[in-house]
Here is the input.
Amino acid sequence: MAKPAHKDLIASPAEVEQDYRDMLFLRHFEEKCNAAYRAGKVGGYLHVYIGMEPLAVGWLGCIKKGYDRVIAPYRIHGHALTLGSDPVKVMAEIMGRAAGLSHGKGGSMHLYDVEKGFYGGWGIVGGHTPIAAGLAFADKYRNEDRITLCYLGDGAANAGVFFETLNMVGLWDLPIIFLIENNLFAMGTRIEYHAADTELWKRGVPFGIHSERVDGMDVFQVKRDAQRIIDRVRRQQKPALVEVMTYRFAGHGAADNDQSLYRTPKEVEEARRRDPIALIEGFIREHNLMTQEKMEAIDAEIVERVEDIYHQADALPFPEPGEVYEHVYTDMLPEEGH
Ligand SMILES: Cc1ncc(C[n+]2csc(CCOP(=O)(O)OP(=O)(O)O)c2C)c(N)n1
Here is the structure.
């Protein structure tokens, strides 16, 4: 404990350890998901967040968990786990088991846990942004000081529906943060080929929305920016748009077998120099916060925990064929005359 944890961040050694554990847990959890996919244990899609962990751990660490609302696209294991969803239920959903968060019918892209404030889990790119505005509208209408945190990708930032949503959100001053996860790619299309203006933070400016670009790799910097912006939106009851600069180390999805079509191994290697896990490990070493043995012990403990989660989930049954139409459509029919 030779030096303070960070010269202008009030982070105790215990907080640093917690952030390290949380990010490492997401990393190992998703490496296990990838292995499970390769072993034929995951049906459908699988999109991992490897390299983007601070966006979940940092931002969700600064909201009021279970009170504020969170909604995201389909790269969402990290969001559900960080919000406190039962990891066995998350893994079970990814593996299509009946005890999964969506009864085994949603899979990796459709995790929901409303008790934890998590509203999914959406596969139509950009399509969840007006739903997010609806959540924020409801809170404003009821005079509740909740905020809505809406994650979306750089590709989604081009969707027409997103611009319409920004207009309404700006007009109505809704308490929402659009967090654009700029990982530089939309599937195999690099940002220069899909966005007329690659400074995505500017998307909010024409609508009078407070907009800025921030870092997404150094979890401590991420937390500082997140807390400042979240406090601002809650206090002012006005929207914000944040472009968070990050990088996707894995392929777009588990079936993305030829990344050479859109990037070189050298580029990935260079981006790895700012791997969020390597950055926090470097920080821990620099400030003598843990011995190498302790870091290795934490790593081993987390690997074991993830193995245990996987085996628990794998022991769970699939849904019965007769349940196929259950939990698909609402049974809340409108009353007659409405
Ligand atoms: C409306 C719509 N168009 C196209 C697709 C196919 N699609 C799935 S993911 C994706 C890329 C989205 O990229 P981005 O928003 O940057 O998110 P990332 O995968 O980088 O997290 C596309 C085009 C879709 N799901 N929905």
